[in-house]
Amino acid sequence: MKILVAVKRVVDYAVKIRVKPDKTGVETQNVKMSMNPFCEIALEEALRIKEAGFAEEVIAVSIGPSQCVDTLRTGLAMGADRGIHVETNSSFLPLTIAKILKSLADVENPGLIFLGKQAIDDDCNQTGQMVAALLGWPQATFASKVVLDKDKNVATVDREVDGGLETLNVDLPAVITTDLRLNQPRYASLPNIMKAKSKPIKKMTVQDLKVDIKSDIEILEVTEPPKRKSGVMVSSVDELIDKLKNEAHVV
Amino acid sequence: MTRTVLLRALTKNKFVASNAPRSISISISITNLSRCISTLIIAEHESGSIKPQTVSAVVAANSLGENSSISLLLAGSGSSLQEAASQAASCHPSVSEVLVADSDKFEYPLAEPWAKLVDFVRQQGDYSHILASSSSFGKNILPRVAALLDVSPITDVVKILGSDQFIRPIYAGNALCTVRYTGAGPCMLTIRSTSFPVTPITADSESKKATISQIDLSNFKEDSVRKSRYVGSSTQDTERPDLGSARVVITGGRALKSVENFKMIEKLAEKLGGAVGATRAAVDAGYVPNDLQVGQTGKIVAPELYMAFGVSGAIQHLAGIKDSKVIVAVNKDADAPIFQVADYGLVGDLFEVIPELLEKLPEKK
After folding, report:
1. What's the CA gap between A233 and A241, in Å, rounded?
2. Which of B288, B329, B296, B325 is nearest to B310 (CA)?
3. Is the pLDDT of residue A53 over 70?
4. Which is the CATH superfamily of the domain at B38-198+208-214?
């Protein structure tokens, strides 16, 4: 079985973002970029499945500008076997990304597709569900535990839902999106980083994949959220209770 | 379909006419648009009653335009479904119709049959908008439906500016993005429930009950049936109010150090009649179950009083609490980022502060 993992290059999670003065978006020039944390978890899970002997090959896919190759190299250094880079300078909505992943899945025939549950830049939480819909495959979103049964061709997935956990059985092929608690992604060692340089990355374009690009959402503006008014420091519990009682009227 | 096309055309006109005197263009668009808005809400229910997040989605749907018609779709099986349906019919005065899909296919919230069901219902109803709340249920199902309809959905809407313009947070709430939906299919949204608070329903709304109709499922084809199966779930039963809608939320971070110590947070929450929350670090350390996590990837809360003990204030956590009315932070580290958003900050050891608070706080009313 092959496993396809979609990885996205995003502004590093630790960076405090700045909204552009012209309100067209968020500053991404000269900002540290990394692999989306949920995508790292997705890739780690795929690698663990391969190491457990349930899969032969892990393919990392990234869609975006030329720098996405760095993200793919990171994935290859973690242990992915090869990469596919769908190069584009446009930024696509999740639906288009899902269509691209669907046509890649049609070519590669993976038994599983792993994605992060959401990208920390657009916070959409849509792509995995959409890929599953387009392929007609079952989905298991927000996974915190994945157990494969190779004989029955079934994955048992614990999902993080409101109010607790839910367990599903999904027939393979399936789409799984990962939550934070699924695993602890590994660091790439130096030898593996060197090795990753010789692993293949296939370049493709959106035209190659004959995907119809959907742009039915227009971004009108991006603004900073309203600032909270600055607060006060109190020096004792008594003062705190007094403020909450007589100033804020919340207790 | 014609209705949505008309809606698009009108919206376009509104855009073209934006140079014209403002009052004119607005009055035209409102009177014309209001006739066309017809919203389908994917409702969530549990043990015979409708969830508060769904009512928030109704509140949101109500602000899409005047005189809009709102239909609630309830699916499930058996008597608790019918019970929930009759409650849904009077949950909000603007609900005009409750659609009930009763089948054991919908006994559990599996995305595959549910997405097909929403598509099935949409084909019969011609809806301009399809909404769900931004719960794990809504986020799981709505994008799947959207892809079936070839539509881009909009996640986590916090403000509705018009029938096709919305504001949603991006980058963990550090930026707000205003978007316009320009597609031809129904406009699909998930709604952040804390941004659309439900006002208590007055007595006269009791008389207004929506009609309940059972959906005829004889033509419902579900080819992906049995590709996924529900195995089980573990839920934490708690006496405390629901985290997402509590008036008071008391949160603990890693500094609590143990499950035992976390009980202090629970005691304080009980005293204030509030819910307990936790940071990712506290959840990862196993002090509390993960459904108590507050933040970008956990629950978004907006209580009247939010108290954080031993919480540093990571970006991803702040994303979940920013809209709280009053934020109180207690932390040993005077430089902790949480103090930048706190209305009242106290630098101190939480192991001394919490017992003192427990002793000195007035009993809840």
Report:
1. 13
2. B329
3. yes
4. HUPs (3.40.50.620)
User: A51: which 2 tokens?
Assistant: 């190491």
Q: Which residue ranges of B are tagged as binding site?
A: 254, 279-280, 293-297, 310-317, 331
Under CATH, domain A2-246 is a member of which superfamily? HUPs (3.40.50.620)
Distance, in Å, from the CA atom of A85 to the CA atom of A107, rounded to the nearest integer, reads 14
Superfamily of domain B248-360: TPP-binding domain (3.40.50.1220)
Q: How far is A147 from chain B (nearest CA, A)?
A: 13
Q: Which residues of A touch B296 (CB under 8 A)?
A: 120, 123
Domain ranges of chain B: 38-198+208-214, 248-360
Residue with tokens 């406009």: B187
Residue B258 token pair: 């143990």
Nearest by Cα to B131 from B116, B142, B119? B142
* pLDDT higher than 60, residue A206: yes
CA distance A7 to B83: 44
Contact criterion met (CB < 8 Å) for A218 and B174:
no
Sketch the domain layout of chain A as residue ranges: 2-246
> Per-residue b/e over A194-231, b at no fewer than 16 CB within 10 Å?
eebeebebeebebeebebeebebbeeeebeebeeeeeb
Q: Which residues of chain B have pLDDT under 70?
A: 1-35, 201-207, 223-225, 236-238, 364-365
Average pLDDT over every residue of A216-235: 94
Global pTM reads 0.90
Task: For the beta carbon of residue B180, count every other beta carbon within 10 angstroms.
Answer: 18
